[in-house]
Each structure stands twice: as structure tokens, then as C-alpha cells.
From TrEMBL:
<feature type="compositionally biased region" description="Low complexity">
    <location>
        <begin position="31"/>
        <end position="73"/>
    </location>
</feature>
<feature type="domain" description="Fibronectin type-III">
    <location>
        <begin position="484"/>
        <end position="581"/>
    </location>
</feature>
<dbReference type="InterPro" id="IPR003961">
    <property type="entry name" value="FN3_dom"/>
</dbReference>
<feature type="domain" description="Ig-like">
    <location>
        <begin position="188"/>
        <end position="275"/>
    </location>
</feature>
<protein>
    <recommendedName>
        <fullName>Axonal glycoprotein TAG-1</fullName>
    </recommendedName>
</protein>
<dbReference type="Pfam" id="PF07679">
    <property type="entry name" value="I-set"/>
</dbReference>
<keyword id="KW-0130">Cell adhesion</keyword>
<keyword id="KW-0732">Signal</keyword>
<keyword id="KW-0472">Membrane</keyword>
<dbReference type="GO" id="GO:0007420">
    <property type="term" value="P:brain development"/>
</dbReference>
<keyword id="KW-0677">Repeat</keyword>
<feature type="region of interest" description="Disordered">
    <location>
        <begin position="665"/>
        <end position="689"/>
    </location>
</feature>
<dbReference type="GO" id="GO:0098632">
    <property type="term" value="F:cell-cell adhesion mediator activity"/>
</dbReference>
<feature type="domain" description="Ig-like">
    <location>
        <begin position="98"/>
        <end position="182"/>
    </location>
</feature>
<dbReference type="InterPro" id="IPR013783">
    <property type="entry name" value="Ig-like_fold"/>
</dbReference>
<keyword id="KW-1015">Disulfide bond</keyword>
<dbReference type="Pfam" id="PF13927">
    <property type="entry name" value="Ig_3"/>
</dbReference>
Amino acid sequence: MSSPTSSRRMGVTSCPRPRGTCTSPGPMPQTWATTPAWPPATWTSPPKASSASSLSSTWLLKTPGSSRPASRPGSRRRRTRWWDSRSPWSALPLGTQPEWLKVISDMEADIGSSLRWGCAAAGKPRPTVRWLRNGEPLASQTRIEVLAGDLQFSKLSLEDSGMYQCVAENKHGTIYASAELAVQALAPDFRLNPVRRLIPAARGGEVIIPCQPRAAPKAVVLWSKGTEILVNSSRVTVTPDGTLIIRNISRSDEGKYTCFAENFMGKANSTGILSVRDATKITLAPSSADINLGDNLTLQCHASHDPTMDLTFIWTLDDFPIDSDKPGGHYRRAGVKETVGDLTILNAQLRHGGKYTCVAQTVVDSASKEATVLVRGPPGPPGGVVVRNIGDTTVQLSWSRGFDNHSPIAKYTLQARTPPAGKWKQVRTNPANIEGNAETAQVLGLTPWMDYEFRVIASNILGTGEPSGPSSKIRTKEAAPSVAPSGLSGGGGAPGELIVNWTPMSREYQNGDGFGYLLSFRRQGSTSWQTARVLGADTQYFVYSNESVRPYTPFEVKIRSYNRRGDGPESLTALVYSAEEEPRVAPTKVWAKGVSSSEMNVTWEPVQQDMNGILLGYEIRYWKVGDKEAAADRVRTAGLDTSARVTDLHPNTKYHVTVRAYNRAGTGPASPSANATTMKPPPQRPPGNISWTFLSSRLSVKWDPVVPLRNESAVTGYKMLYQNDLHPTATLHFTSKNRIEIAVPEDNGHALVQIRATGPGGDGTPAQVHIARNGGTSMMVENSAVRPAPRSGAVLSHSLAMLILMGCLEL
């Protein structure tokens, strides 16, 4: 089916079969044509059915009893062929039915006027077009001319109204486009569009009063002021469409103005009153100004106007309205008086330069004045940065000048970075100072074989501008290394080895491809150097192995780098020792003694430094008597001390002790073993029945003596730790008795007291009490299991109970 339709009604002829007759909605029947030269066959839809509205038709011609492609008639093989008018080998083009390109639509026209309608259709063969009016064929007449797809009327009359159809047809089908023509005849009527009742106008200005009655045919228009008919003059014009224009208005132009409209159907009029008002004038115009970036500027604009009308101000920049109410914007309007319309520019930017126009307007007229604002600022970004003449350490850079933003460019600065993440850095140039009229300069001091991007920054007296865009990435040419490797050192390794270390050189110092290191070394005192070539920029050590190399032999070592462009400079000579061997001598006169239940002191005679390496210290090994030495614990001294204290031992235990010297190669032979026995552990019970008394600035404390058990060491004295709340530093006191008296500050604070027994086995378990100065004599009674009491004035805990034995005494 064809798809195009008119805006109102349209008929389309179509046929679902290639043979037969199809009747359309219109009066014209259409018939499909077939090709008689072909033998009888059946028509079958193709595998993929084509739309009936397609511009071409595709059918399957199938001979009876065959499903294979058919040859021409008379061929021995019976085949089926798809005939497609779009196929380049098709032998049966069927063409296309008409399809609308342009249709008619409903129309209203005035009586006596002219009208031209047109429609157009496409198809194969090309369709013919004819016209119908109210279902009857339409031919050319006196006032009507029919030209194929065009229908032209002159001097329309009422009998021309009706339904019209444009018909397009060819041998494949017919299509219709329908529309209605309504010819109107109306007397003038102002009801929908009268003359304005009150017409304000400004003195000295111009007023335009339209007269647009509804009328058919078009009405003849006359204007009058009062009883006087107006005619065209230097100040008064009546246009062909009936509009009245009065120029250079004065008070004498006030009055009633009437528009008279007339045609053969009748006449009508409409009246309005012209009221002359005072003209709007700019009394204080804005002044042009030059300002710098970031400055503030106020453009003044004052106006006078007719007091019976409202006055508004509108500002534009280069003819674009300015929004002065935008939050956070750069414009502010003065709102003090109706006749003041000043505009303030805040923190002026370069984009704020241009032509500013102040418009003062009422509903009848307006006045305007202009001013130019020039904003000076740092230069804009240069453009077109190009890199030429690329060398190993230099390039030639050129650029184009950017905007100077109304202040001459004073100088240029060039920057470079190594992509992708390098930071921009200023580079040395030739000339050193690039003047503002320059557009090229040489960049110096670049690194060979390095990727770079460049940019240019312009400056003037007002500051530094935005940088240019980065240039295209380039790589400088290769060169021999110019820096020697650093961090030359060494030592360690297996016997017979010399290990040399250095810091690998980073990419920026390699200067070219094929990078590596040349290492030279010789025994100290020798005259000939041995050289080793080490490949790879990331290599950081070299191992020279030779059984003839004696332990801890000094070698002189130096290094340089190279690439395919040549060798770099040599480093300074460093002294590196070959691998060390373990010490060969054991310490002597080892002596050990237990000094507490968990510690012992060990002393020995030092060994002499030998030629096998640098002595780093001593290693002490200790194990319980009865255990194997393999289970020994070890501690090392951090230097060459000849004594040490070993901690974390078991109480009342006998130990074997040996001492060995060690260096970086390992530990030497063990000394003869010595024996030491730790002390019995200190008493585990804390002091009990603690009592105290404050007497002026003295504190007296006493407790029950601690009696050690059979497996505990003797008690030789007691330690008391005293700490006052107001004095955070604690003081330690020692006494050989079970009582002590100390001086204390005269304050009302609390104090923490810890008391423990001490002896050869160390310090015992403490008893802890909190005492208050405003108390008299108090006492703490010990339970069977003792733990430190929490901090309070009177405490009851898991192990201690505070019992007040005496009443408070006034001090």
C-alpha cells in the first residue's frame, strides 16, 4: 500500500496480487499489466516478503513441479528465478505506483483575490496529474487555469468554494489528495482587533497605530483626527496596509484618531485617543574607561522621563543583555532612585571589556548612550609552539604571539617537562632574556636522549599570562654519558670474592641506548688494572671471583658508564675489601657470675684484630647445665665491649657460658666455658600491715618484716616509691629496716606509696597504698594473696583491705 496521504483525505490504489483488478476509493479503476511473452507460470511471494508500498515489486516466477532456479523458456532444466526490478540482471521491470511529493491543504481566501494551488507525485512511469472539484473533472476556464500539477484562480468568487482533489496516476495505480477551498466575503469588523483606546506617545518621538479590521475583500482604510481626514505628509503616513505613523510628535497631536474601513460588503470604524507624554532623556551618560584586570568600575547612567510612567534601565555588553541579579556575578545595579541606573563592574575580567549601552525606557519610548570599557591584563597564551633543530642538549623553539590584552608584552619564559608526568620547569635560553617582540629562541641545557614537551609564557607589566599549549613531544639526540656513577662501595661475599656495588644511573643520565658500566679494579699497590664490562642500566653490583684472592684484601676500584655514543667520565677511586673470613682466635679469661635471680654478668679478655676482616663484636652463648650446647641462647654485643649483662634467666639455675668473636663473615671459635649460678628468687609476699602517720611536713611509714621462704633469697632491705598527686615525679627511698620517715610537701593532696623487699635475688612483689594527708593514722591489713590496690582514699580489693584503726586527727 502507498503511504502518503493529504492533510484531509487521500485515496490510494493498490493490488495485493500481480494479476487482476483493484478498485480505488476514487472514480478511476486501475488494472495490473503482465508480460505475455512468458510461458504459463505461478507467481509466488519471495522468501522475504517485500512491502506493498515499496517503490519496486519483487515476485517469484515458478514453473510447475520445480523448486530449483529456472532457465529461460525452452531450456532443458526447469528452474525458478527471483525477478527483482532492483537487480542488475532483472529482465522483468514492473515499475512503481505514484507517490506524493507535494499535496494540497485546506485554504481560506478572500473573494476577488488570486490563489495558486500545487501538487506533485513521483512514480515509474511518471504519473499524470488531473484535478476534480466536488468529484467532477476540472478544466481550464475564464478565471481558472489548470496546468498539470498547478491550479491557478484569478478573482475568486463564492462559487469557487468546494472540495478539490488532485489525482496522480500511472499504469500501476492512482492516488488522491483532497482539500477544501472556502472563499470568504465579509464586511469590515473591528470586534477582534480594534484600535487601542489609549495610545501614549513621547514628545518628539514616533507612534505607530495599526488598523487591522477583519474584512473580505480587503477593506479601503482612511484615518481622521477629530473631523479632519489625514493625508500623507512629512510627519504623517498611512501605509498601504492601513497603519498610521506620526513622527516628531508634539502636544498639538493629542486627540481622537479614527480608522474608517470599507468594502462592497459594508463599512466600520474604530477610535483611539493619542496622549503625548514627556520624552525620556539620558541626563548623565556613562563614560569610557580603561581599567586593569581585577579592578572595580562604576558606569553612571541617569535619565529623566514623564512622571506618569515607570522608568526602567537595561544594560547591554556588545548588544547582549547583562544580568546584574546573578548571584556571585560581576555586575551590580544601583537601586537608590528610579532615575539612577548606574552599573558597577566588580573584579573585572578580560571578557568584561567591550561596548556598554545604557537604555532608559518607558512604555512609549527609550533613550540610550554608549561607553567603551577597555580591560587591560596579562597577555593571553602564545600559540603554535614548534620545535626545530633538535640537538643533544639544545633545540630551537618558535611560537606565534598571543593577545597582549591592551598592554605590550615585555618578555617570554620557556618551560619544559618530561612526559607524561613530569613537572614544568623553566629552562635556560639563548638569549637569556627573551624580549616581548621575539618569536623564537634556543633552549639550552637539555639532557641527551630524553623526551621533552615545551611551552611558552608571556608576561607584561600587569603580570604573567596563561601558558601556551604544549608542543609536540620530541626526543633529543644521543650523546656519550656526561656523569660518572656514584655510590661506589663493596665488601662481603664468599671467600675468594670481591663484590663491588654502585648506584644505578637513572634514565636522565644515560644519554643514549646500549647503556652499561665499565668497572676497573686492582689490588692496592698493584700497577695494572683489570676491567669488566657490565651490561644493563639497572645493574648495581659486580662479583669478581678468584681463589687467589686472600680474605679482606684491599682493592682500588673505579667505574664509568658507556652507551653506543661513547664512554662517560670515571668516578673517583674507592677502596673496597674482598670477602672476610670468620675470626680465628677465641676470647680468653671468660668469667661469669649470677647477680640476681634473672641476671648474670659476663667478662672476657678481647681478641686482637686480624687480617681476615673487621671485628664487629662478641657473641655470648649460654645454656643450662645438663642441656646440650645446641640449645644455647645467644646475645651479641653491639661493639667491642668486654663485658655484658645477660637477662631473662631462670632463678637458682646453673649455666654454662662461652664467648666468641664475630665479623661480617660469621663467628669465630668458642672460648673455654665458664659457669654461673643465678640467685634464688626474691620473696614473693609483699610487706603487710602498712601503717602511716603525717606529722607536719614528715611522713612516717612502717610495715611488718618480710620473711623469705626456704627457696627465696634473703631480705637485705626495703625500697619505697613515693609519688604525690601534685608532683608527678616519684622519689625512691631505701631502708634496711621495716620503717621509714621522709619529708613531704605540706599540701592536701593524695600520695601513692609502693613498698617492696629487696635482696640478692632482686626486688620482691610491691604492696601499694593510697594515703591522704587529711587522715590521721591509718593501716592496711594484708590478706593471703596480695595485689596492688587501686587508687582511692579507702580501698578494698582482691588482696588488700583498708581498715581505719584510729579516728581522724586534726593537724
